[in-house]
Structure formats: C-alpha cells, structure tokens
Design a protein that fits this description.
The complex is a heterodimer of chains A (about 110) and B (about 110). Chain A is about 0% helix and about 50% strand. With about 110 residues, chain A is mainly β. In chain A, strands 2, 4, 5, 6, 9, 10 and 11 form a 7-stranded mixed sheet that branches. Chain A has a 4-stranded antiparallel sheet with strand order 1-3-8-7, with no helix packed on it. Chain B is mostly beta strands and about 110 residues long. The N and C termini of chain B lie far apart (about 40 Å). The mean pLDDT of chain B is about 95. Classes of the chains: A mainly beta (about 110), B mainly beta (about 110).
Chain lengths: ~110, ~110
C-alpha cells in the first residue's frame, strides 16, 4: 500500500490561476518535504516541515507556499502559476531531522500550466 | 562545498549486460550518508540503498551491488544481468551531518533494450 500519497497525479491549470497540490502520509513521519523536478533534472528542494516548523529554501520563489495542518497532510500552494512552474512536484517524508534518515517519496503530481 | 556528480547522462544496454552507474561526491564532513534512488517512468523515487561514511563495505542485493570508495569519493552502482524493468533514471544523493537535506546528482538515465 502506498505510504506517501499525492493527489492529483496530474494537474492542469491556467496561467495565473492558483493551484493546490496535496500530500498525505501513513508513516507518521515528522518531516515532510516538497521538491520540484523539471524534465531531465534532479529534484530541487522547495521547503520542508519538521513537525510544524517550516523551513524555506533561500531560492524558493514567494509564489510557492505550503501548509501542514497536521502530521499526515501537507499542501503546496502555487499562488500564480507561470509557464516556468510546469514540472513534477514530489512530496517526501522522513522519520526525523537526521542526515541518515531515508526519505520516502510519493508518486508525484505532474503540473501543466496552459 | 557539497556536490554530487553523475557524469553519465544516459546509458543504453541490451538485456543481460552488466552496467555500472558512476557517482562521485564532494563533502568536507567526515560523517555523511550516500543514497541511491531509482525513478521509473511512473515518477516515484524508490529508495535503493543508504551507506554511511564509516562503512566502506561493499554491498550486494540480488542483481544490484554497490562499491563505496572513500579514497576516490565514489559510490558506484552496478546492475548485473540487466533487465528491461531496470530502465529508469537513477539518482545518487548525499546527506551531510547536521542536515536533513539530500543533495542529488543530476541522474543517469538507463535504458535496457530487449
């Protein structure tokens, strides 16, 4: 059974129209990550939560926001999607904030911006 | 500065051939962790292995084996008797002590033809 679930798998939005991607986990992990992956590139960390503590990467645009209402769920909000935001968005979880922890990934949401 | 280099962008082999994916890393930390992930066409990153910097023992898991050499800062991955199902993008990643972030290489796309 999938332990990190992302919905939807495919999302199409219009230029400038806000969109929300969701991630849920059944692992009860403390840490949840959001990555952006563009075609033929490595995943790029946008931000992550350690419990309710939000950690933003320095180069993540303000257009990207996140919410974590509880341990199980985390949302990625793109306030005004541009064409350059079309990408695969990956959610991952880990049991704690240690270097050795394995990150477990969801299947991703592929976002298209028209 | 920390960095992971996967110099091979794409490799094509015929089924049953052995193939080695290279990974070279840079870090100033003495304690760190190395990972390999597989990303099939479906998109989900699947964890394959984790190695810590103090454990240079090579590992074999079925058709997969990993060669960790600190002297050359390399953590190479070999698939023996490749199969079509091995076709995917493979990412090598580094996690340094006191951080819970993964630094990914740019990935190697492996295509196994029947």
């Amino acid at each position: 059974d999938a332990m990190v679930i992302q919905n939807p798998r495919y999302q199409v939005t219009q230029f400038g129209k806000p969109v929300t991607l969701s991630c849920s986990q059944t692992l009860n992990h403390n840490v949840m990550y959001w990555y952006q992956q563009k075609s033929s590139q490595a995943p790029k960390l946008l931000f992550h939560y350690y419990d309710k503590d939000f950690n933003n990467e320095a180069d993540t645009p303000d257009n990207f926001q996140s919410r974590r209402p509880n341990t199980s769920f985390c949302f990625l909000d793109i306030r005004s999607p541009g064409l350059g935001d079309a990408a695969m968005y990956l959610c991952a979880t880990a049991p704690g904030g240690l270097a050795k922890n394995i990150q477990y990934f969801g299947a991703g949401t592929r976002l298209s911006v028209l | 500065a920390q960095k992971v280099t996967q110099a091979q962008t794409e490799i094509s082999v015929v089924e049953k051939e052995d193939v080695t994916l290279d990974c070279v890393y840079e870090t100033r930390d003495t304690t760190y962790y190395l990972f390999w992930y597989k990303q099939p066409p479906s998109g989900e990153l699947v964890f394959l292995i984790r190695r810590n910097s103090f454990d240079e023992q090579n590992e074999i898991s079925g058709r997969y084996s990993w060669n960790f050499q600190k002297s050359t800062s390399s953590f190479n991955f070999t698939i023996t008797a490749s199969q079509v199902v091995d076709s995917a993008v493979y990412f090598c990643a580094l996690s340094e002590e006191n951080t819970d972030k993964l630094i990914f290489g740019t990935g190697t796309r492996l295509q196994v033809f029947p």
